[in-house]
């Protein structure tokens, strides 16, 4: 009788893939909601003390899906300086990993960057049993005792109910390096904006940009539901001290007619509160199926033209602080190799998006 092939378990066979357990219980645990930590990426955190991207009880009624997705913590960051030799994290999630095309490390995990602005290097990602909603994970251990700037990126597609940062008993924690300005860069958009389908949080394109531009970034990407409703425009306009608003929501508009209805109105509402804040409108990245589907290409071209005309008309009417960028350029050569499913970027795709947007954003901010 032929031998039956058995399923292998890499977690048992490869020690590098095993989940590292906390070696002792001597960590001192801190809430990042307290000083000297700084939590970035949540526009209403000071009022609500929740890791949530929109207010819990807004003056404007939220679509049900947007209200739910606002609990996903995409773009959130914990920033601090420490001389810890060991660093760990305790996390209580709102739910377990459940996506078929995005790793649990990106959907539900944190990752850790070490270094000051301009010198941030990836170090580690939380490793845990993806079936769990509560976990502990060691981010580093047995490091030399010296001060380091730490950035921990929140999960992209899951809510965080609680998070605690643990350090060795002798460690000191101080404030993070300050931003160059209190003004924030705000992204409103779709699942791609939210970070689908990065392998870990730090590879969402807004998080990559945050390592290149020393400002606070707010990620208001709502998967499948970035539709440009006026209620969202009013809420986005409530965020104080904006440096730039980026509108990247074409991909969730069902038609060019829908985009023509929402985009000018979204900008009008925002301009009522922020007359001079730069606004950047980005058309959709290219999709793999465009090569084979004429109708898809034609519809995307119509939506692109809507965005171009909207920006051009506003410029002609005297708005000198509105810009357009053709998103189809962002993935570059072999764009079809930069996604998981023909639409949502891999880490390579997100890096290319950030590479294309970095000089443009820096130019807009400097002007």
UniProtKB/TrEMBL annotation:
Limits of the SGNH hydrolase-type esterase N-terminal domain: 28-173
InterPro entries associated with the record: GxDLY, SGNH_hydro, SGNH_hydro_sf
Domain SGNH hydrolase-type esterase positions: 183-362
Domain of life according to the entry: Bacteria
Coiled coil start-end: 289-317
Keywords of this entry: Coiled coil
One Pfam family in the UniProt entry: Lipase_GDSL_3
SUPFAM superfamilies documented for this protein: SGNH hydrolase
Protein name as it appears in the record: Lysophospholipase L1
Organism expressing this protein natively: Paenibacillus qinlingensis
